[in-house]
Amino acid sequence: MPKKKTGARKKAESRKEREKQTRANRDVIDVAKHPCNFNMDCDKCQRKQKNRAFCYFCNSVQKLPVCAQCGKTKCMKSSDCVIKHPGIHATGMAMVGAVCDFCEAWVCHGRKCLSTHSCVCPLTDADCIECDRAVWDHGGRIFRCSFCHNFLCEDDQFEHQASCQVLQAETYKCISCNRLGQHSCLRCKACYCDDHAKSKVFKQEKGKAPPCPKCGHETQETKDLSMSTRTLKFGRQAGADDDEDDDGASGYDAYWKNLASGGGQRDYGEDDYDDDDDEDEEEDEEEDDEEEEEEEEEEDKAEDKAADSVAALKLDGAA
Q: In terms of pTM, does the model score above 0.70?
């Protein structure tokens, strides 16, 4: 007979189940529409930013703060307030009760918001996958990628999503074998066949796609996605597709254009080229002078030999 569960044991198990469900629901929340991620215009500097307790640019407090959990700006007299205000509608700083450490926004003094927001805040681990900035490091809003469901800051969301559906391989084959990958993980940027998509670590839930055996993220069928493979552009292939006319030496036309426009890695100035030309000219002149001197010496020697032979002939004729 199994031991009878005590009341404390039942409470602990139910608490663990609630926490597990809370973590699962956090991924389903639409971050763009959550009150902690609302747009806010600062009352002092008039700059648009994410909903914050203090302005990111001038550190001023807003006149009408917005609750990060329920999104209200006025606390009615019939609510479950920790600080009672009978017959009065509380607004401004009289309505707030805390600042969330994750989303940096005010939380109202309602008992439900204060007790639940820190557990279900959707921006708990909201570090941008591109620039690794957290909520406190930039003033913009936070979004999720539509494909890999990673967090993105407002600066990188469009650039990341434009290049997210690109595999880290040159083919659509499974990374573990040579068969066609039918399941794709948009976080690992890899394809898996039916056999290698099964994992002993991550369990597959009934009615859902198999999780990625590498990271546990839910995979999708490759045929339902607009996946593309990785292409490498280097050497003579760089810029060859952009030019309709195949001019240039073996496709290096883009390289020479870049070099002509001053886009090379090393900038050789005109002075350097002038100095090199001067040195070459001086060396050529010295070589020419040496050759002329050698020719003159050879001519002088030949004339001396001819004069000696003529003198010897004259002496023989006189004798």
A: no
